[in-house]
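In response to reviewer comment 3 from the previous cycle, which asked for concrete evidence that the modeling workflow produces usable outputs, we include below a single protein chain processed end to end. The sequence was submitted unchanged, and the resulting structure tokens are shown without manual editing.
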Amino acid sequence: MELLCQALRWTADAAFQIFYYATKFVHPLLGFITYWFTGKNELQVVLEKNIPRQDRVLQVEAILRKWKAFDFENMSKCSLAEIYEIASTLCYENNLHNRKLKIRFKYCLEKIIGYEKLLKNVEDVRKIHYNPYDKAHEKQLLKLFSLLKPESQISAVDQRWVELGFQGKDPSTDFRGMGLLGLQQLIYLCETERQKSLAMLSRSLNPRHGYPFAIVGINMSFLTRELLLEGHLKSFFYAKSRCHLSMQELHDVYRYCFYRFDQLWAINKPENEMAFGEIRAQLKADLLSELREVDLGNRIKQFLEAEKMSDVLEVYDSEVMANAAALYDIAVKIDPFLAELSCVGERGFCLLKDCIENGLKMEKPDEDVVAQHLYHIFNLMDSFRHVKRRTICHRYFNHVCTILDSLPALTWMSVASNPVAFIQDVIEIATFYTNRILKEFPQKENGLHVQFVEQWLKALESLKAFVQKYYADGFTWKNVTPGLSTCDATDVELFDKPLPPPPPPANLSRLEKSVEDMHQKLFAQINKGLDITKGLRKVTPDMQMHKNPTLRTATPVCKPTVAAKPAHLTKNLPSAKQDTTRTPVLTCDDKKWFIENHVNNKDIKIEITDMKQVMYIYRCENCVIVVKGKLNSIALDSCKKTSLVFDNIVSSLEIINCQKMQIQTMGTMPTLVLQKTDGCMVYLSKEALNCEVVTSKTSEVNLLIPTEDGEYEERCVPEQFKTVWNGTALKTTPSEIA
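The workflow returned the following structure tokens.
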């Protein structure tokens, strides 16, 4: 018996040795055979294949893992330059002289090492345990609560943490397994998808089919890390076009996992939380199936784009459409004619929403096709264009112009760049007519006309703010096939509430009929001739003041107030009260400094870090601005009693529409341009004595030249000129009295 057992052990050892040496030498032998018959090594054969990029990276990784000289652990610590150096060395050693093969190999190497770096970063964050005595950790925890329950405050230890799905009043104990990774991913979910996370939290609190929200979130972090460690996410990350992988891409996978778990839980409707393990296993099986059969990257991409699309439309409904729809409630109290007119504006905003929704699902069309995309809006504008011509004598003509001349703002999708400025131009056109309305109907109908104007301008301003927030550089068309749904029927039922239907099209016939009726009444009265006076009451002697002395002692009848002239006919400038409502601005956008609407600010100091930066100063009054450093140019527009001190300018200083200014340069200033400026003292430095001064429509401009004793000598810039004809050309010189 002992001999039999010993023989079996010898047999097992021999089989293991044979398997070990076979696996050790078979791969090099196969590589040698491949090289002998094809003249190419295994790496060259893989790189020359025209296969999907993720498959190529996986095969290259399998080859590199068989090389003893390639240390993956140390490679994850290399920088990008070191990776390129390693790739060049390996290309030389493996006879990869073809440029296309070199590029493919470097790409594969970046992807492989990037995955290892991502794995290392995830482990580093996970190993950081939550410390209740660390203020930074406590701040992140309280941030999570404020995102989910912004209306209340909480301490680090509180019984209300149970409402978010933690096991007890001290949530720090639940982060023992995943460390700060679980907390950071929960915060990322709530920050990026606020409404979606609040909806999932609300469903998790269902008394019959609820689940612990926070605990599930931490388990989804564990599932995401598990997929990353086991290598299931390699094909997903390797298929991305970006070479550098970041934690954000892993967080997006986490969001998708949490979203799918919530969906499965809502479909299965388990009676208690004991079904968590079963649903988690089902979720992992579904994810692995998608990784094998379907491109998970497209699923996640469509999921994220669908979320962004729903957010955009939700904001449009709550902020833009709500203001446009509120106009009808005001207009119907004034006149049915204005109620019909408000329906025209609301219809235009509904059509714009349809255009945005369709645009988010289609590829960017050609410029000549964009107008076809906005066909219904242009058709609406054309349908009511003749109404404006036929209502010139109408009482509400300015109301008609306000609405109809504002409709071009709804075509901002056709503007390739800076649609915000386009909308602002339309708002200014509408303001021209709204000012007329305010002058004509200041307090009539209990101020409803003022509310009408304010509500319509509010709708236009909300549209401008919406475009500024999402499409400041132009509408972003998405490369998504129209009609492709990113969710199934259950997904729509669970997460997306149907939006209210748009209002019916405005009744054009009723609007035209009301205009025709008014025209007929007007012509009927004109055709009466002298008979029109028959409807007047007869004035009796007791109604005549010279025959009835009692009327002389009565209270005089108040004269009707005459409306002031429209703003466009007066020469008065805007009042100071309007100017004070402007918000002061001090910001740097890329390489442009904006200083606007400051009043009585004597301490404005700017540090310039890049000489390519430019500065624009607008509508500042009684301020002192100090600029340190060297910049490209400065422009002052519509400023009063403002002092500017700067070091150096590369190109020019422009002063336009300013009054009573003081300028001092401490360094160089090649060019000084003054336009429509009254009163300006310019203190030049010794480096700026060769400055070129260009003036037009200016007065009281004085240059102060530095002298050797440290004082300044004042010289005025001529204001009057004399022009004579010398026989060949006009000759202009400063006049003697200038």
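Confidence is low (pLDDT under 50) at residues 479-503, 557-580. We consider this sufficient to address the reviewer's concern, and the full set will be provided in the supplementary archive.
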